[in-house]
Specification:
Length: 225
């Protein structure tokens, strides 16, 4: 039986997507943080923040803080970036805690992540080179991109770890990949070239990514969600 918090999160996330699609900005101010708050509360209620779930839960908490910062004016963007940086660090610790013994095959996703990160970071570096208006964010963006890549690796590596069952690993890996896509879409839209309905697609991949991380972590730790 699905956890009772799951339909609440999905309903709030869907309401947020609708608000973005329709341009209901005032509704978005409510639905955006409400969706992540529901996920954070439900995750904590289900897993009690025990063991590695504490770090994954901290990731959701920092993500909620980042959501709030990004709802404010553009002057708060750097604070939102910092909050999501901490969210990714927490997620990395959560999925690599306790430190696993990685087989050689685990480095296959590392190679894929490195290639993807180099392509994306190269495009961003060109778009943010001095003396452009975004030049001051180049170094923070590079740091953020590196940590984002490590987050993706930590989730993809579960697919090759003996201590992870396949269903939990698939959910975690899908969550990490969707979160990576969400941040990449956001960066491309903000720094390279805006594209139609960008906020909508960024938010859909973000919410589904966070859900995948939550369900994967719970299924691995508890055997159910």
């Amino acid at each position: 039986m699905p956890a009772p918090w799951l339909p609440v999160f999905l309903l709030l996330a869907a309401a947020d997507w609708l608000a973005l699609w329709q341009g209901w900005q005032r509704v978005n101010y409510l639905t955006k943080p409400a969706a992540m708050l529901a996920l954070l509360i439900g995750f904590g209620w289900q897993g009690h923040f025990a063991g590695s779930l504490l770090w994954v839960g901290l990731g959701f908490g920092f993500s909620l803080l980042g959501d709030i910062f990004l709802l404010l004016s553009h002057g708060w963007f750097i604070y939102g970036l910092a909050a999501f940086l901490l969210a990714h660090v927490s997620t990395i610790i959560g999925f690599l805690f306790p430190c696993p013994k990685l087989d050689a095959i685990c480095w296959l996703p590392a190679l894929a992540v490195l290639v993807g990160w180099r392509v994306i970071s190269g495009r961003l570096k060109l778009a943010m080179r001095p003396p452009g208006p975004q030049a001051r964010l180049q170094r923070p963006a590079e740091l953020y991109g590196a940590v984002l890549g490590l987050m993706l690796f930590s989730t993809l590596a579960t697919l090759f770890r003996r201590d992870w069952d396949v269903p939990a690993a698939v959910l975690a890996a899908a969550g990490g990949l969707l979160f990576f896509c969400s941040d990449s879409l956001l960066a491309f839209d903000r720094f390279v070239r805006p594209f139609p309905r960008a906020r909508f697609w960024v938010r859909v991949t973000y919410h589904l990514g966070q859900l995948g991380l939550a369900l994967g972590a719970l299924l691995h730790a508890l055997g159910h969600f």
